[in-house]
C-alpha cells in the first residue's frame, strides 16, 4: 500500500453544472463496424489504444446552454477525461493501476483514465443494499456503502468489485482527491464513503 489515508470518496460527474463528453459519431461508427466497442472494464487498453475522438455532449435545451467546460469531464458513464491544462499532474507516476489514454477533443489532447482491476474492498457486513420489489436496484445499489481500508492497494484512484461503475479515491498524498483540491480542478465531486 502506498500512502496513508483515513477517508475514502466516490467520484462523480456534476452534470447540472458541467458539460459531459461523448465519443464522436465517427468513433462510434468505427467501433460498430469493427465489432470493437470501447469498454473501460478494468483491463489494459494501452497497447492497442489509438487516439479516441471525443466531443461535448450537448442538447439544444436552454438548461444545457449555461453548462461550464470542466477540467475533468465524464466520458459517458465509463470514465473521466482530464484536460491538457492539468494532465501533467497525472502523467508521471500518478497510480500504478491507472493508464492515461490519449483523446482528441477538437484538436486538444485530453487523457482518459483507465483504471486497471478492481479492489476487493466492499464491506458487506457494514453496507446496506438498496432493494426494490425484492431485487437490488440497478441505479442506486446501496443505501449505505462501507469499504474496508486495509483492502485498498491503490488509493490514488480505484474501482471496487461489486460497487457498479463507480470510481473511488482517498485523501492520501497524490490521490485524485488531493490533486483536485490542491489545484482547484473543476468538473467532478466527491462523496465520502464509510471506512471500516
Strand numbers in spatial order across the main sheet: 2-3-6-7-5-4
Helix/strand structural class: mainly beta
Number of helices: 3
Sum up the overall morphology in one term. Answer: globular
Distance between the termini: 16 Å
Average per-residue pLDDT, rounded, comes to 89
Q: Unreliable segments (pLDDT under 50, ≥5 consecutive)?
A: none
- Rounded to the nearest angstrom, the radius of gyration is 17 Å
The oligomeric state of the chains shown is single chain
Portion in strands: 25-35%
The profile of the biggest β sheet is: 6 strands, mixed
The amount of helix comes to 10-25%
Series of H and E elements? EEHEEEHEEEEEEEEHE
Instruction: Please tally the β strands and state the result.
Output: 14
